[in-house]
Design goal:
Blueprint (H helix, E strand, L loop, with lengths): L2 E4 L2 E4 L10 H5 L2 E9 L2 E2 L2 H14 L8 H14 L5 E8 L17 E8 L4 H6 L1 E7 L14 H12 L4 E6 L2 E5 L3 E6 L2 E4 L10 H12 L4 E3 L2 E2 H5 L3 E6 L3 E8 L2 E2 L7 H18 L4
Parallel strand pairs: 7-8, 7-15, 11-12
Antiparallel strand pairs: 1-2, 1-6, 3-4, 3-5, 5-6, 8-9, 9-13, 10-11, 10-14, 14-15, 15-16
The structure holds pyridoxal-5'-phosphate.
GO molecular function, one term: pyridoxal phosphate binding
Pfam family, one: Aminotran_4
Catalytic activity: D-alanine + 2-oxoglutarate = D-glutamate + pyruvate
């Protein structure tokens, strides 16, 4: 089972237990991050830790560790668990207090937990592409916070799973927002188009890497809202996330995208993304 972090200490994972009145458990009152590990090294660790702090500050929880300290602790956890290829899941809640919707008036210590998991790269799906469904975005208006409240996302993903699909593409009325656990992109006439990073989507770390790669490689980008109609008439569609990297979308509902094959811009971005991983985490097998 390996080791986990509980409140700054690395302990046996079977002993990492949280109180039933932890506000994360009762209210989803907390935030989380998922960090990719390749060759035993964290990819875009600084960016993930910065977003972790930003998310927690935006709901009034302050991380009781310096990010450098936390980063060092996560490195130790990777070593102790001998993790080569996988993820770190990390979450911070407001802490333990008698159940009451309002925050406790006395100071409580936030609960920090983290563990690792082996997780292969989705090589086969990245080659063939994945199918998706469309679903109404029923979530709250602070999707920019990586909060533990994932019920809307979870219901959307379940719909996709029941349809035998990889992801649910969410939309608010006519506008596409993001996937249940990914950002969504269309390509039209060589231009990569993706929702602007505002309160309606999570500002993906993978999205930021992809947009930087586009900029550095003269691939035009528009960060703006796009419609269901634009999605339906796109030349290519893909999604991105920490675990899915650059993932081609080859089906939306009953409709095929790019004749059921990953498109050229998507494939180029996959190649550039792989180079970026290797730059940060050494050559991949
Ligand atoms: C709702 C949502 N949007 C976007 C993303 C992609 O973010 P990242 O690239 O940082 O993994 C995720 C990742 O889990 C997510 O849950």
């Amino acid at each position: 089972m390996g080791f986990a972090i509980l409140n700054g200490k690395i302990i046996d994972r079977s002993e990492a237990k949280v109180d039933i009145e932890d506000r994360g458990y009762q209210f989803g009152d907390g935030v989380y991050e998922v960090i990719r590990v390749y060759n035993g090294k964290m990819f875009t660790a600084v960016e993930h830790l910065e977003r972790f702090v930003k998310s927690s500050n935006s709901i009034g929880i302050s991380l009781p560790y310096k990010t450098a300290e936390l980063s060092g602790l996560l490195e130790k956890l990777i070593d102790k668990n001998n993790l080569q290829l996988g993820i770190i899941y990390m979450q911070l809640t407001r802490g333990v207090a008698p159940r009451n919707h309002a925050f406790p008036t006395e100071r409580i210590t936030p609960t920090l937990t983290a563990y690792t998991k082996e997780f292969a790269r989705p090589d086969e799906s990245m080659k063939t592409g994945v199918k998706t469904i469309l679903t109404e975005d029923i979530r709250w208006l602070r999707c920019d916070i990586k909060s533990l409240n994932l019920l809307g996302n979870s219901l959307a993903k379940q719909k996709a799973a029941e349809a035998g699909c990889f992801e649910a593409i969410q939309h608010r009325d006519e506008n596409v927002t993001e996937g249940s656990s990914s950002n969504i992109y269309i390509v039209k006439n060589g231009v990569v188009i993706t929702h602007e990073s505002n309160n309606l989507i999570l500002k993906g770390i993978t999205k930021d890497v992809i947009l930087d790669l586009c900029l550095a490689n003269n691939i035009p980008v528009e960060e703006r809202t796009f419609t269901l109609e634009e999605l339906a008439s796109a030349d290519e569609v893909f999604l991105s996330s920490t675990t899915s990297e650059v993932m081609p979308i080859v089906g939306i509902g009953d409709k095929k995208v790019t004749e059921g094959q990953p498109g050229p811009v998507t494939k180029k971005l996959q190649k550039l993304f792989q180079q970026e991983i290797e730059k940060q985490c050494n050559k991949l097998n």
